[in-house]
Structures are given as C-alpha cells and as structure tokens.
Amino acid sequence: FPMMYGAVEVFSQSAMIQYALNSWKCGQQLPWGTWGEDYYMTHCMDFIGVGRIGDFGILGDNMCTGANCGDGYVASFHAFKQPNEWAKCWDIAMR
Questions:
Q1: Which of 8, 25, 32, 53 would staple 76 via disulfide (CB 3.0–4.6 Å)?
Q2: CA angle (18 as vertex; 14, 55 as ends), nearest 5
Q3: pLDDT truncated to tens, each residue of the chain (95 aa)?
Q4: Phi and psi for 66 in degrees, rounded to 5?
Q5: With the CA atoms of 34, 35, 36 and 39 taken in that order, what torsion angle do they form, in degrees rounded to the nearest 10?
Q6: Which helix (H) or strand (E) covers residue 29, if one does?
Q7: What are the φ and ψ backbone dihedral angles of 30, each rounded to 5 degrees?
Q8: What are phi and psi of 59, to 5 degrees?
Q9: Which residue spans within 1-95 are E strands per DSSP?
Q10: How many CA atoms lie within 13 A of 90 on its CB side?
Q11: Residue 57 carries which DSSP code?
Q12: Is the peptide bond before 79 cis (omega within 30 degrees of 0)?
C-alpha cells in the first residue's frame, strides 16, 4: 500500500519522538491543507525519515480482507458501522 491504512495506525515510541521533534517541517514544507489524517501522517513520517513496517494482520478489515472477529491476533476490526454489527463482532472477540 502506498500509505498508512486509515482504520488503524500503530507508531513506536521512537517514531513519535521523531514526529514531536520534526513535525514542524511537515507543517511548513508539505502541501498538507486538504489531506486526510492518514495521508498526512504517511507523508509526514516519510518526509522526516521515519520508516514503515506493514503488518496488515493486526486489522480485521471487513471491507478488503475480511474480519474474523474471533481472531485473537487482530487488534482492531473495520468497518462495523451499524451498532448491532459492532456489538456482534465485540461479543465474538470477547469470547
């Protein structure tokens, strides 16, 4: 994927330290005004030299790859927009 996936993003402590120290560069040197948050963070972190690791297994994405709500490795599930769908996935995940 060419950018972070908006449903969930995980940052290391060292990545956040670099962001805290250098994000001003993104604000001044990138044309971020119309960007969404995930697009901004992808481009800003690239711009300040923070590397990426793609671990697409931590997201159960019902839109693209399917969401097994009973998968104990998955940290987040997307997109369960209706309350009853969300509650059903929550119940399965908590078993």
A1: 8
A2: 55
A3: 566 656 778 899 999 999 999 999 999 999 999 998 888 999 999 999 998 887 777 777 777 777 888 888 888 888 788 899 889 988 998 88
A4: 90, 150
A5: 170
A6: helix 13-29
A7: -115, 145
A8: -120, 125
A9: 59-61, 76-78
A10: 8
A11: G
A12: yes
* The residue type at 61: D
Q: What are 70's two structure tokens?
A: 């009973």
78 near 62, Cβ under 8 Å? yes
CA 68 to CA 59: how far, in whole Å?
10
- Residue 36, token pair as written in the block: 């969404």
- Residue 39 tokens, joined: 């697009």
Residue type, position 73, single letter: Y
